[in-house]
Amino acid sequence: MHALLLCAVALALTLAPSDAAVRVFSLRANGLKGDPAGNPPDPFVKVWCGSSFGGMTEFHKDNSNPSWSASFYFRDCGANDHLTFEVWDKDLNFDDLLGTCVSSVQPGLHQNFACSLQYGTLFYSYEL
Length: 128
Ligand SMILES: [Ca+2]
Ligand SMILES: [Ca+2]
What we know:
The protein is mainly beta and 128 residues long. It has one domain (18-127): Immunoglobulin-like. It contains one helix and eight strands; from the N terminus they run H-E-E-E-E-E-E-E-E. It has one helix at residues 2-15; strands at residues 22-30, 43-49, 52-56, 72-74, 82-89, 96-104, 109-116, 121-127. It has a four-stranded antiparallel β-sheet, with no helix packed on it. Strands 3-2-5-6 form a four-stranded antiparallel β-sheet, with no helix packed on it. Strand 5 (82-89) and strand 6 (96-104) form a beta hairpin. The radius of gyration is 17 Å and the shape is elongated. Bound molecules: calcium ion (2 copies). Residues 35, 89, 91, 96 line the site of one calcium ion.
């Protein structure tokens, strides 16, 4: 019984948001550029908070205006750490980097944060 209770408490502590945890969600972009032949890109995004790599979104085929469903949770990332996004075009051999966005994490909920790329705009939301 006690062991079960301890497990439940440990789980609750693990899942509870803390002061140093960042959740990134609602990634989307518009106006992304594909190849010179005019084909749209197959975009996906890689996400970091500080030095922690959070992983990458799914990619969307032939889509200059994607909305990604993936969200990211950084357990040990807090105010003034850098959120970094790399937007990539998936290709057969070598993916192309379409742009990079870096911002400094601030407390609170931030929705539809916009970052201009060379071609197009990346939008994301995050909460600290
Ligand atoms: Ca390409
Ligand atoms: Ca491609």
